[in-house]
Amino acid sequence: MSYLEQKMPEGKVFKDPVHGLVHVGDQIIWDLIATSEFQRLRRIRQLGTTSLTFHGAEHSRFNHSLGVYEIVREILDITFAEDTFTPLERITALCAALLHDLGHGPFSHAFEKVFHTDHEEFTQSILTGNTEVRSVLLRGGREFPFLVASVINKTHPNQTLVKLISSQLDADRMDYLLRDAYYTGVSYGKFDLERILRVLRPSPDGNGVIIKESGMHAVEDYLMSRYQMYQQVYFHPVSRSGEVLLWKILDRAKSLYQAGYEFSVNPSQVLPFFEEDITLDEYLALDDSILMFYFSIWQNEKDKILSDLCNRFLTRRLLSYVDYEPSSDQDFYNQMKGLFEKAEVDPAYYLVIDYSSDLPYDLYKPGASTGKSPIQLLMRNGELHELSTESPIVESIGGKIRTDVKLYFPLDFIENGRIPAEIAKEIVTLIHKKEVQ
Amino acid sequence: MSYLEQKMPEGKVFKDPVHGLVHVGDQIIWDLIATSEFQRLRRIRQLGTTSLTFHGAEHSRFNHSLGVYEIVREILDITFAEDTFTPLERITALCAALLHDLGHGPFSHAFEKVFHTDHEEFTQSILTGNTEVRSVLLRGGREFPFLVASVINKTHPNQTLVKLISSQLDADRMDYLLRDAYYTGVSYGKFDLERILRVLRPSPDGNGVIIKESGMHAVEDYLMSRYQMYQQVYFHPVSRSGEVLLWKILDRAKSLYQAGYEFSVNPSQVLPFFEEDITLDEYLALDDSILMFYFSIWQNEKDKILSDLCNRFLTRRLLSYVDYEPSSDQDFYNQMKGLFEKAEVDPAYYLVIDYSSDLPYDLYKPGASTGKSPIQLLMRNGELHELSTESPIVESIGGKIRTDVKLYFPLDFIENGRIPAEIAKEIVTLIHKKEVQ
Amino acid sequence: MSYLEQKMPEGKVFKDPVHGLVHVGDQIIWDLIATSEFQRLRRIRQLGTTSLTFHGAEHSRFNHSLGVYEIVREILDITFAEDTFTPLERITALCAALLHDLGHGPFSHAFEKVFHTDHEEFTQSILTGNTEVRSVLLRGGREFPFLVASVINKTHPNQTLVKLISSQLDADRMDYLLRDAYYTGVSYGKFDLERILRVLRPSPDGNGVIIKESGMHAVEDYLMSRYQMYQQVYFHPVSRSGEVLLWKILDRAKSLYQAGYEFSVNPSQVLPFFEEDITLDEYLALDDSILMFYFSIWQNEKDKILSDLCNRFLTRRLLSYVDYEPSSDQDFYNQMKGLFEKAEVDPAYYLVIDYSSDLPYDLYKPGASTGKSPIQLLMRNGELHELSTESPIVESIGGKIRTDVKLYFPLDFIENGRIPAEIAKEIVTLIHKKEVQ
Amino acid sequence: MSYLEQKMPEGKVFKDPVHGLVHVGDQIIWDLIATSEFQRLRRIRQLGTTSLTFHGAEHSRFNHSLGVYEIVREILDITFAEDTFTPLERITALCAALLHDLGHGPFSHAFEKVFHTDHEEFTQSILTGNTEVRSVLLRGGREFPFLVASVINKTHPNQTLVKLISSQLDADRMDYLLRDAYYTGVSYGKFDLERILRVLRPSPDGNGVIIKESGMHAVEDYLMSRYQMYQQVYFHPVSRSGEVLLWKILDRAKSLYQAGYEFSVNPSQVLPFFEEDITLDEYLALDDSILMFYFSIWQNEKDKILSDLCNRFLTRRLLSYVDYEPSSDQDFYNQMKGLFEKAEVDPAYYLVIDYSSDLPYDLYKPGASTGKSPIQLLMRNGELHELSTESPIVESIGGKIRTDVKLYFPLDFIENGRIPAEIAKEIVTLIHKKEVQ
């Protein structure tokens, strides 16, 4: 019997607070979990800076990755008819589900913005480069690492497999909504996973999954959960304030390095990133704790901006914010900038515009070449109808990008004298004027 | 109005997955939460190595500390009659509840074993030393830091306050049982907190809290939860295997340092600990991420033992174990030790006996000078009866220390050739013989 | 101290699966719960025939009434500032919340359709007629029964009180959505009650309650829950099939009585309803078990239609259904009717069109004289904005009445030969033709 | 393919608040659920008078029976190896699980005490007598009804099947503990069903089920839940007060009948019970609503005792109680009895001693011929150990029958003048004296 068909003598389980149990029966899944690259995900938080707002959300990507695997396993082994996929397709999908987030680094969003890395590319590299994960996958055949990688980069010929893991109704989203809701303690993210799993079917055109009409309301509920989690949790302005600090810390450190600044401790682990010349091993050596170590020692750097930003991040002295309307607030921004410069507070680090935007559900746009595949309902008469044509609720959020822009700045500088009183007064007046518009 | 009486203009809340909301109305509580020493608790995991077994349990002591505060707040502001305590006693208790774990360092258990630190002493130092926390407390009067400290070190004259935070039925335990159950996903730790809070009363003798008779079954259930969490989670042999690795890593690093070994990167943050000469600032500078940083770079140290142990910890290649009976397994241990030495595997690091023990409930022993105060029931006729005299279930677990001893060793060395085949065979035979006894 | 201010020496609680505990501190509430009219609500199911579809939903109006009371109590005693209402207004609201459903009879919907009773009128009669409830209320003063009644019939001068109990965001809906979700086991009905209670405020114009802007998403979620519960549970076509049976049973029995039919057992308890001449005592003597008793014995009546319908109801042999479009299916209906008549199956009882319709959220329509008050958001700048102007989701369901019409008939008659084969064949063809349209 | 092997084309599910979904795939199960005898269980409450104390507990035996079926289905189809049972054994067990409570009548406990019926005998009669259930079962072969009956009456040759449905760790108890906890809202009854199902194994001696050692704590928790539910819910003295009223109502009605009393309405449905000469059809015609109908009209009977007791039951004017110690309170009882007789309050109906007793866990007693089979643990070394020898907690409750006796009487008669003042005073003194003993 080949390695890909090898079952463990007795199934293993992981106790999981979201799914109850995560079941592992295939030897290769067990072996992949044991690799150092997968274990590294224990040291990468799922939600970056969200725990600064929702203190319960301290869970890791390890946690989430097991959950995505479990959902795909339930779909393949319980929901779908046994002959939906070949055994090879099945195990390929399970591996892809488990490994889809492998390339994430610490605080991905801010990190990638500053260092121009791409976690999706690194996922591909880890699957096919010189890693323990690849060694395990290779036991399944020379092409198997590439097969798994092709599901994740969406080029696998069976698009139903691809869309189980990445689409508008995929195991990834289903797990993170439920998991992030559980750990934050907000109730909005909950939806009826059991019901969705029951009404999911492979699309007859081999191009994704569809939903039986009877499950429409469960999917509406799932999309509402998604919408609410984005509005309430993922885009929470306080978490974004932490994100802005992170971004500016990394930005400052990189600028200092490029300007020849001498760090009191040589930041070996981040140097390759400053130089934007990174090997796979250097990338894998990085995790949340490495960055947190540097933030911790940088609190004592002689560069005032770097040390202040790091101290803010570690002690949660966050930046404050006001709503910012790009089309009309340019003057306001320029006036603020002038005042900050006058007070010798560098606006590049202390007056930051942050955008967040989300498309809760992408409608089908006939003729459009891009965009995500819509969710299809299988009607009782056998026809497929796009979800938003049946659901006014989904229609109401469909196709509309929701954007929120905020301007972040240190209110404490205004209050504690770091900005001289007369300038502070002008700033306060300016903000007040804007707010009562 | 004095600072200690100062209310916030509008109450603040933290969304908490265990208690729903944590309510903050007192200015001093808000200010204490904002201190760098309290924020540091975000970087100290509540359950150390438990997440190696229960992957969901990645929560921090920050998380738990807010929970303990919330339980005490509910007892003082909702359960107890308003005149039970003076306003000063009330705010003292709230501060003590919030700050009781302030002195915890990373992976306290193993850390303290190797470096002879004491988190309780550090809690006292943080409250009364040169810290932001003390600055905030001082706004409440010169004696206020000492007053809060006295609740935590149990010398406060009002022993009811003391026992709300530290006793066999205290807010600390109530929170951690519920919280650890929530994050691990095990159901055993759940009990009816709401009911217990309803039946709790200050003891008429001013020496703790008592329970109305009608709440006896709720307290039985709480003690069962505690018993089960210890058996199922806290003493789980796999988590203890992670703990053993930690202990041996720190042990090895300290020994190397004392032997004059030169580390490839100067471990500045841990040097004071190697020398057992630690300032408060040095202690506070340490957190989980600092240790994890060193473990990460020590994976590449030239010392094989240190690098292997660190790699094991980070990639979860844990030690295996067998039951060990101290009174009768001495011979077995010596034979194992001989074989390990013969294979040049240092038994000081690779053949480790680990004890765990717990006393689920300490009965009242007349005449005994030590021991914890028992839980008293307030009977309908006004008498106080010790819980175990009324409950056969509690009697069954009361006063009995439950000890579990295991011998840990690297089974993979036996399997992968690190230990030569002939010695490995002898070891296997020895273990097998012991197990079928 | 007056009766209306009288507190119970020690508060009482009811264990409630939805709210945890229902707290009773006021003597009058305790006394009202003990009246025979309130206890009667234990014998009236909250959801009539829903348990034929969702077997878990067997809870009573007693259950729900306590829940509505508890929500109002939390709003008045915890959420709102103490001076929002006078003590008299407070106790009036609590009584009204508890008693608002007092006039419901068994299976209200079908019952009222046939016998032209009105449960709201009976609620008023019970409050002000010769009942135990009125006796209790009178202890609060001669006008107090009328005061409580005026909250329920919406004429009380303080419209905020009125709208706590009856509006688009009232304690009644909040409780039944959560409760019905709990008992059916569907997750759709859950929303974050705790959050809504935190952001609720009395309207500055004294005309209802408003929501702080920060709570908008919680209210969106509540309206979605409402929408989903209507779609998934309350309008479930199988429950409605039970409802149709009930309606037709009562209809048939009444017709038989009016035609002088002699029942084998004199249906004393329902005679006044057949005659549509009902005293308050006769109304109060009726409950689910009385009707069920008659259905049970009517199974053996010699009238074939009555006995068949009752047997169907008790053994859950429900009618089947097809979608029915009033504007275009008239012909279809007439053809079906012709065939049923030919088969001697009375279409008045066996071919039934049933409408259900709901308005998930009623928008503000300027100039409109009717309609429900919209939900207002209190914006950060102090303005009030109607909810749907801020929420695209709410806008999508607002103002649109959702109607579902079905035609019910006994498919088993077609299958088991009760309808002759050749006619049955025609009926099947007719239905098939309609479905594939 | 035989009827017993017939699967439904598409599986059906019932939404269940306790198990999420109840899955039905076998045609015979679907057909059995549709029988009138099984549907009758919708009209029999699971917990009789418990909802007088815990208002949420209004669920029916229909509800519970589906739950027991679902647990057995999960054990047979998921937990156990496929070859554990033959297909015939499997379907026999599923039918038995579904039907095990079929013979329950309304308020079984009180009913059987007065009329000497036995619900277990009636279950057997329904399975093998002239019923729809038997008709369905007969499609599985002439012997099939008897086969199913033999599982329920414990004579089936495969004792493992028998013990799945009736033993100290059976699906019946597992469901009712979880279900009753859910509906009452008490948290005590919860335990980790998923875990127990995972560690359950057929006993190697073919005589029941055993538990893998690793599941010991889950079973401890289950037994604690059972213990707590009995102490807190099932034996709650207020529910028992309702039970006493029921018993005395039926007792009084029967005595009146036997004494030739003429009821204002002929109680046709209960006459056979008064005469203790009951056909199966008469038994099946009875349900909660029939009895409630009679209680309702008996409120107006001229017999004062019957009308008072019925009114008490329907309006929840319950009897009060004091603890009663059979061995020492005989004198107290006689004095009370004397005073009641003097006041012309018939002690046969108004001064009632009620016993409740439970054996939380029956230990193995070597040599004992009776008693329930103990729960066996499968140790890692393959041995079977009786649970209480491994668990001190179980040992503490094992083998000990817990009895609680109370004396019930109408305190309101003492307070409202129905008992003359001077006698009332003596009664109060007597009770007070007893209580302060």
From TrEMBL, chains A, B, C, D:
Domain HD: 61-177
Record's signal peptide: none
Gene3D superfamilies (UniProt xref): Hypothetical protein af1432 (1.10.3210.10)
SUPFAM superfamilies reported for this sequence: HD-domain/PDEase-like (SSF109604)
InterPro entries assigned: dGTPase-like, HD/PDEase_dom, HD_assoc_2, HD_domain
Alphabetical list of Pfam families matching this protein: HD, HD_assoc_2
Source organism, top-level taxon: Bacteria
Protein name: HD domain-containing protein
